[in-house]
Design a protein that fits this description.
Strands 8-7-6-5-2-1-9 form a seven-stranded parallel beta sheet. A two-stranded antiparallel ribbon has the order 3-4. The chain is of the alpha/beta class.
């Protein structure tokens, strides 16, 4: 019985990567892996010193991230005639970029963060929301409502917005059911062991607990 392929994802990216370079790198990985790059998470970062180290104005990182998302999608969708962009942070004329994402017009972009601003950004521009932080259940629910409302305001379908949460490798069926009741569509788990064989055992036990061995969709975060 054939298993589904291991999918690839990223940790939180932006706004410290140039979107022209990042778009090409991600599309190249997607082509080499035959369409496995399916959880691209972007976020703003929370450390002013980190921004200074790479020459980014910490106060403008939100606008810069919005623009970077638009740039990457424009490049992925553009044809041989090239595309142009004239923004506050990035500008280019008739730029033609290859390779394109494998079999799709753009890679799915999930907005990461733990703020209401991040939730709104997910609704306006993201394919999904991946909230982090120690949020209360009420705040998590409010943020997803904000994301869906922002999607409606932007003329987008809020029902297509995916909802990813982090989970523990020892999660129970009841805990997963509780996530599903909240509208969660994906759970990202990580092995706690340090040795590869033990990591494999932990992930296998998780797959067995949820009957995923033959149809597992595993995530690799970098």
């Amino acid at each position: 019985m054939d298993a589904r392929p291991v999918l690839l994802g990223t940790g939180v990216l932006l706004p410290y990567h140039h979107p022209v370079i990042l778009a090409k790198r991600l599309a190249t990985i997607d082509v080499l892996s035959k369409g496995r790059m399916r959880l691209l998470t972007v976020g703003l970062g929370a450390l002013p010193g980190e921004a200074r180290a790479v020459g980014v104005d910490f106060g403008t990182r939100g606008r810069r991230a919005d623009e970077a998302i638009d740039v990457m999608r424009l490049l992925w969708a553009g044809g041989e005639e090239g595309v142009s962009f004239d923004g506050e942070f990035f500008a280019f004329d008739e730029l033609c970029q290859f390779p394109k994402p494998y079999g799709v017009t753009h890679l799915p972009i999930h907005v990461g963060g733990s703020s209401r601003a991040a939730a709104r950004r997910a609704g306006r521009r993201g394919d999904g929301y991946f909230p982090g932080g120690a949020l209360t259940p009420d705040e998590r629910a409010l943020q997803m409502d904000l994301a869906r409302a922002a999607a409606v305001e932007a003329g987008r379908d809020p029902e297509t917005l995916e909802y990813t949460r982090s989970g523990a490798i020892d999660m129970t069926v009841d805990q997963v059911d509780a996530f599903a009741a909240q509208g969660v569509t994906r759970i990202v788990v990580s092995a706690t062991a340090t040795e590869p064989e033990q990591q494999r055992e932990e992930l296998s036990a998780f797959a067995q607990r949820f009957a995923l061995l033959d149809t597992a969709e595993a995530g690799m975060r970098t």
